[in-house]
Amino acid sequence: MLTYIYMIAITAEGMSGALAAGRRNMDIFGVGVIAFTTALGGGTIRDILLGNFPVTWTQHPIYIYLTVSAGLLTVVIARFMHHLRKLFLLLDAMGLVAFTIIGCSVALRLEYNLVVVIMAGMITGIFGGILRDVLCQRVPIVFREELYASVSFLVAVLYLALDSLGVHQDINLAASFAFGLTMRIAALYWGLKLPTFSYDPGRWH
Amino acid sequence: MLTYIYMIAITAEGMSGALAAGRRNMDIFGVGVIAFTTALGGGTIRDILLGNFPVTWTQHPIYIYLTVSAGLLTVVIARFMHHLRKLFLLLDAMGLVAFTIIGCSVALRLEYNLVVVIMAGMITGIFGGILRDVLCQRVPIVFREELYASVSFLVAVLYLALDSLGVHQDINLAASFAFGLTMRIAALYWGLKLPTFSYDPGRWH
Amino acid sequence: MLTYIYMIAITAEGMSGALAAGRRNMDIFGVGVIAFTTALGGGTIRDILLGNFPVTWTQHPIYIYLTVSAGLLTVVIARFMHHLRKLFLLLDAMGLVAFTIIGCSVALRLEYNLVVVIMAGMITGIFGGILRDVLCQRVPIVFREELYASVSFLVAVLYLALDSLGVHQDINLAASFAFGLTMRIAALYWGLKLPTFSYDPGRWH
Predict the structure, then answer these.
(1) Would an 8 Å CB–CB cutoff place B33 in contact with chain C?
(2) What residue stretch is flagged as signal peptide (chains A, B, C) (predicted)?
(3) What beta strand segments (E) does B28-169 contain?
(4) In terms of CB atoms within 10 Å, which end of chain C has fewer, N or C?
């Protein structure tokens, strides 16, 4: 089940990467690379940080084909995508939750301590988008727009709490998805953001 | 033979990094770091992604000296470099082909599957330039200008095809270089580019 | 002793990251992430490059709490920080020296060759700041302002020279700190910079 959601999620993330590449007028090769990086970059950084070799996608070429194809497909259907905006945001939210839970699971299996497990979930959830924004020359939006990284954090905490309480994995997944999707959709609907820190120095590092 | 071409290649890439640093008015320390990163960053990322430790340059200090020296030398001769533009682009093209083949070889030896082998070649070929552009605050040019990443991709495919057909390594190298250099030079000469994807959203991630 | 200085140092670096995030109007989650990355990113990249798994901070959650807390605290006290500018720069200079020495020690222990040991020190010292600047969309200041990377380099060389001469570790640390702090403070006081390389091409990669 989580695998299917994961594959939907990396497809959605690949499309989000392609759109960002299109805003920078990249060629279709760049679109494929950014799509791949957005979808699989978070998991890659998690695997490297945790010393979890071989990196996941190197053992599952299907993920590579899927994300690059999603990116290239986006080039064709981009003109219609504003009609699909809500669907797209929903898929992206599913991806955020799925990535977070998968990231936590990997770190749990490797027996890292709890705060690292939570961070592994969040890194999987949000670093693909950060890499996308760095490669496309934007300040990472996950730190500026509606609740996103925070949803990943709360999902990780909830998932681990239920897991440690011995809740059955299926129920835990259902609860985490229900909670995460509700949070994210509510954040988008009401424009919920974290407080912002604005600092304007004279000359300062 | 490939080793000599590799050393010429990292020298050329180091110089390209230095020029990019110069466009951002970096100090000579920054020039050295960007030169090193441009020349050896692609191979470093490949080694990390493939779990191929120790990373290559840590075992060959000569590569470090060579790339940093190339960067610093560039500071001295930059004013003459527009006279050397064609030579420089030729060396850069040789580097692209050499990096790609070396990257494929490393992944082949580690018995990764074919698509990862191709990606390892491309990552070695193009990620140094991507790191250079990120550190120098540019949208990566490998995704915007004349065919570059595509040449790396096609060279990887050709090299692996000939290799799997049992073609002798020397002949394979000669053919891959002939093909790759011709492609890249033709792309520069005729301004060949991939189609570009331009996307201008209203407000959109 | 070095451990205490290290903890002061990552606190100072976390605060520097938070200020940079504040210049980009990030939310408090972004502030925490940038604080963490600035403080622990250099050591993380060192560990990955050297194949030194598990990455240090994954085994010491206290470092995670400390850096994120320092970032969030900065949000509260930012308005008073211009009064603390000199203290802050001193802590930052202590961090640079401490990070450099720790980075060298790690690479020495793993028996890398000398130039890699020096680079490990410098990477630990300066790459947190580079990651901060990349995530906050700035050209890395360590390559443009008063001597910083150079101080890291010279501290590494001095520390290794005294170490190879058999100087007692405590005396070596004292000497390295005295030298590094003096250099960095002198650079700030007199505005010492390395020569800059400015290159303005017509159209050039």
Answers:
(1) yes
(2) none
(3) none
(4) N
Q: Which chains touch A (3 or more CB pairs under 8 A)?
A: B, C
Query: For the packed helices B149-164 and A28-49, what is the interaxial angle rounded to 10 degrees?
Result: 70
- The answer to whether the beta carbons of residues A151 and A167 sit under 8 Å apart is no
> C85 touching B, CB under 8 A?
no
Mean pLDDT of C144-173: 93
ipTM value:
0.88
CB C104 within 8 A of CB C118: yes
Residue B27, beta-bridge partner list: C196
Per CB-CB distance under 8 Å, the chain B contacts of A145 are 205
Q: What is the pLDDT of residue C88?
A: 80
Domain boundaries, chain B: 2-190
Instruction: Dihedral sign for Cα B6, B9, B14, B20, please.
Output: negative
Paired tokens of B120: 């390892």
Q: Where are the alpha helices (DSSP H) in chain A?
A: 2-23, 28-49, 61-77, 85-109, 114-135, 149-164, 169-190
Is the minimum CB–CB distance between A13 and chain B shorter than 8 Å? no
Contact state of B144 with A22 under an 8 Å Cβ cutoff: no
From the list A29, A128, A18, the residue with the least C-alpha distance to A73 is A18
**Beta partners for B196?**
A27
Roughly what angle, to the nearest 10 degrees, separates helices B169-190 and B85-109? 140
Give the pLDDT confidence score for residue C121 in this predicted structure.
96
Dihedral, C2, C4, C9, C10 alpha carbons, nearest 10: 110
E strand or H helix at C149, and its extent?
helix C149-164
The Cβ of residue C135 has, within 10 Å, a number of other Cβ atoms equal to 25
pLDDT of residue C166: 94
Reported as type and span, the H/E element at residue C151 is helix C149-164
Half-sphere exposure of C36 (CA within 13 A, CB side): 18
Examine the pLDDT at C203 and tell me if it is beyond 70.
no
| CA C40 remoteness from chain centre | 9
Q: How far is B28 from chain C (nearest CA, A)?
A: 6
Single out the residue of B17, B25, B22 nearest to residue B132, CA to CA.
Answer: B17
Amino acid code (one letter) for B111: E
Nearest Cα residue to A102 out of A10, A168, A24: A10
Q: Say which residues have a Cβ less than 8 Å from residue B94's Cβ, sequence separation at least 6.
A: B5, B8, B9, B12, B177, B181
Yes or no: say if C49 and C43 are a contact pair by the CB < 8 Å rule: no
Q: Is C123 exposed, middle or buried (0-12, 13-18, 19+ CB in 10 A)?
A: buried
Is residue A140 reached through a cis peptide bond, with omega within 30 degrees of 0 on the bond before it? no
Phi, psi dihedral angles at A51 (to 5 degrees): 65, 30
